[in-house]
Structure to design on (778 residues):
């Protein structure tokens, strides 16, 4: 029992204690753990300065002392000593990691099938490779921002059925509901069942996408400007230790993947997810439906000899369930904008409009305590302005 | 006239003075400039320690003092004082930049046309977007290595005409001859004619590629493991200031690109390039033939609001000329391995074999002094071994 009060419905009970980085009211920046509606300044809880007086948790992760620091923070929060805690609304959440490489996957069978049917109605919705490897590509690490950072509507080359593309602000701005995984220690050729030695924790991730820019630029090297303008993550890196009780069996894979991708342990995660556009919930789904697990993604990403480093981030790919109401992007929900959805305020949306706010939430163990939650991953769209920065 | 002797054929006369990072014989690591067959330890030449006692030139670039430091180094090398110079063969060249994001383009008309004809013999070799924007994608920053680093043959999923792919070492390992550009200062939505405020300099770049892995994984999100195992760059960042006299008019673009991509100034670069496989020269070409300039690439990359940061790197795309003997990759030279080339030692190559060494060289002003050269970008292939690192 902690001396910090935790509301019963909180995402952040003492069993969670995710790591984050904040700017304190005195302008110092440092590493904290979140508990209830407070953060604990680790520097005030006896944690060594080099691990917590930092602008990111990268050093803490790379030191290998993350689990020990989290345990000590938990003991401190339940002990007789008192350290500095701050209400969450007096600190400013910062990007918790310095992102090395960012890889984004495409591992929901339902999402990939939905997109295939929309974009290539005449062919097989899945390419022949899809069931044999977790398809993924590199995104822009420098565009990863923390929740609440405004997202400016990007410009790019778009066609409106014409041969000639015009440079214009996107009119098909979308979200993608994903879970992001943070690498804590270096490695290569990592077998799936070793993934907990390298994955430090997870965040919610919104892989903002401009569908019209993507449609024109995509061949033959994949998405570029349609994705590289912004990727939002939630501020709290929920540790794999805290998530471990919610690991479950993944859906069966058919065909069986090549041996290097086969795991003995369960690496799907029973994590409930939802998305609001403004005041309207547009998606409720569960991460356990993903075809490829994060363990397999990490294995694949390093199978060619590439190394992961502390601070690397990889996204699961859009999380879509099988049924209507479970799709993780507007392109699926609105059939590429042709079937707009009604919001509670009486307006319709094919794609996102300026001023719209997208909020993602996720939690494991929603029904039964303790609930291991992620908090919110939120961004508001602002209109396009130009200028050299 | 410098007190350091410079052979007449050197890539590194006093007019060049590219930056690099080396480990000195006493194990210190620091920033140097190269001159002739020597490096000058900038710390011994009166340069402020925070700019040169560093593992990369990122801080030097971000400080905005690069041009001033290079000028002062030049004055020092021609003055009466003496500083610490080291023969190049007693220092160990390190990766000169800490790479933020790495973007790779595809901007040679001849290369893109050659590949299109090989990979899609029945269609138009170029996709409709190719002449309207510089096609590019993000690569793996953490896999960028400095010249002389061995390159391990990657494994991945490959098909041999079968539906089912197998996990195996690539049998289609290729080089790609490219020029890499290093970002020195932050910016977004950068007009082409402002590019010298953001591009600090250039290197040679070998975008190693596994063609069989690429063929299977490529749809719909582009290359991933086929490229992410290694990208080699030359150790010397040749400044844009040194290259300025060799900027020339680019080939005419048809159709004229959208206004945001139009430049008034000349941004093609008259840079002679060649590639050896072992002791055999397999390619001689010139960088001035590129359809899209590096200025346009930078503009495009930031047109959606994405920021570049000091240390970001972007590759030109494979440099291929119009004629046989000018192709910048083996897939072009050997028609995807079907028309092997003979090396001087009597062996043939469709693709690279274990033990092969690929050496790239480049210089501006080869015919007339001063020659502004890049030195070598070299890597040797070693056979595949497995294991968690």
């Amino acid at each position: 029992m902690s001396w910090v009060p935790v509301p019963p419905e909180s995402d952040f009970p003492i069993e969670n204690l995710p790591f984050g980085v904040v700017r304190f009211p005195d302008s110092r920046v440092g590493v904290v753990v979140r508990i209830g509606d407070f953060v604990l300044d680790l520097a005030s809880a006896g944690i060594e300065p080099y691990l917590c007086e930092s602008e990111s948790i990268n050093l803490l992760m790379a030191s290998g002392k993350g689990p020990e620091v989290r345990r000590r923070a938990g003991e401190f929060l339940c002990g007789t000593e008192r350290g500095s805690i701050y209400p969450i609304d007096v600190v400013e959440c910062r990007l918790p990691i310095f992102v090395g490489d960012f890889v984004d996957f495409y591992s929901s069978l339902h999402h990939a099938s939905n997109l295939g049917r929309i974009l290539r109605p005449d062919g097989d919705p899945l390419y022949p490779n899809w069931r044999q490897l977790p398809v993924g590509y590199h995104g822009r690490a420098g565009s990863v921002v923390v929740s609440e950072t405004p997202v400016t509507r990007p410009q790019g080359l778009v066609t409106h059925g014409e041969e000639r593309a015009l440079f214009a602000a996107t009119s098909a701005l979308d979200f993608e509901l994903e879970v992001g995984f943070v690498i804590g220690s270096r490695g290569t050729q990592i077998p799936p069942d070793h993934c907990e030695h390298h994955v430090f924790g997870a965040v919610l991730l919104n892989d903002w996408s401009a569908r019209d820019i993507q449609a024109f630029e995509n061949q033959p090297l994949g998405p570029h400007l349609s994705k590289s303008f912004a990727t939002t993550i939630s501020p709290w890196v929920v540790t794999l230790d805290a998530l471990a009780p919610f690991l479950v069996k993944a859906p069966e894979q058919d065909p069986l993947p090549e041996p290097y991708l086969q795991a003995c342990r369960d690496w799907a995660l029973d994590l409930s997810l939802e998305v609001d556009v403004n005041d309207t919930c547009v998606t409720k789904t569960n991460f356990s439906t993903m075809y490829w697990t994060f363990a397999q993604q990490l294995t694949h990403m390093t199978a060619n000899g590439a190394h992961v480093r502390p601070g690397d981030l990889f996204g699961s790919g859009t999380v879509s369930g099988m049924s209507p109401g479970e799709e993780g992007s507007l392109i699926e929900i609105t059939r590429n904008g042709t079937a707009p959805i009604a919001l509670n305020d009486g307006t319709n949306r094919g794609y996102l409009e300026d001023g719209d706010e997208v909020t993602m939430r996720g939690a494991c163990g929603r029904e039964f305590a303790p609930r291991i939650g992620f908090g919110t991953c939120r961004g508001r769209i602002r209109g396009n302005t130009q200028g050299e920065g």
The domain at 102-382 of chain B is CATH 3.90.850.10 (Fumarylacetoacetate hydrolase; domain 2). Residues 51 and 59 of chain B are 6 Å apart (CA to CA). Chain B has two domains: 19-94, 102-382.
